[in-house]
Amino acid sequence: MNKKCIWCLKEESEVTFLTKAHTIPKSLGGQNFNPNVCDSCNKYFGERTYKYYSIETALKETFNVTRFRLIQKDKTKRKIGEFKSIFFDLKSKKNHFTIVVKDTFRFDYVSQNQLCRAFKRGLYKLYFEELNRQKSIGYENTFELVRGFSRYDLDDLPVYYFYRSFGVMLMLGNELETPILYFERMNYLYSNEYFTEIEFLGHVFGFPIKKYTPNDLENYIQNSLKLKETFFKGCKEIKRLTDIDLLLTIMDEK
Ligand SMILES: [Zn+2]
Asked: In degrees, to the nearest 5, what angle opens at C-alpha 132 toward C-alphas 127 and 133?
């Protein structure tokens, strides 16, 4: 069967599939590839579509903060996939973590709204490429919404972040070195026809995967929060990256 790109839906006769498309960025320790991403779509996500950064950068910068915090706990671990942040200075002293936002990020040209949008599009990329890799789906028409937002910059889809009630996170063996994207590891992850949830590096996000009505949204939030009431205290639609508990400060609460 001919290869077909999950993003642009073009086949091998029209596009090439020569470069390896990391589903989770290499600099975050990702080691999996999706063979169904064509070269031009793969390139797109790594290009500076936003004046100073790419979609992939927005994703890496964000999760790198969490990874830094988690990896520092266990310094004996070999660190793979380190990279130099352009937005944050990360510091740790005796198990105390601080994140200092660089001036360039604070004052100049980086619009927080835009960075958040880039991050959300990156999160969808992560989700969609892993979904296809793990479950061999993604070509269905219903994923038009996902493709449109992430690859073609259409619409604006909401992404919800769930706040934990306490800082217990389940991480398996090498998960810090090679992070894994989960669709249903824990039974608190809820999904239905319109919305889905993923867990990545201790963070839980929920977002639409299909056109929905305000009523669908309300139902989703209600059902999801009900399922999570033991472990989570609520959720918020992310508007800025600071809405995410990037340093997992919940782990410090006694
Ligand atoms: Zn493509």
From this structure: 100
Cβ atoms of 120 and 159 within 8 Å: the answer is yes
pLDDT digits (tens, 9 = 90+) for 181-217: 999 888 899 999 999 999 999 999 999 999 999 999 9
14 Cα to the center of ligand 1, angstroms: 10
Tokens of 192: 């239905």
The Å distance, Cα 40 to ligand 1 centre, comes to 6
pLDDT at 218: 98
Centre of ligand 1 to C-alpha 16, Å, is 9
pTM exceeds 0.90, yes or no? yes
CA 91, CA 165: separation in Å to the nearest integer? 25
The CA distance from 102 to 228, in Å, is: 35
Measured N-to-C along each axis, helices 112-135 and 144-152 cross at an angle, to the nearest 10 degrees, of 130
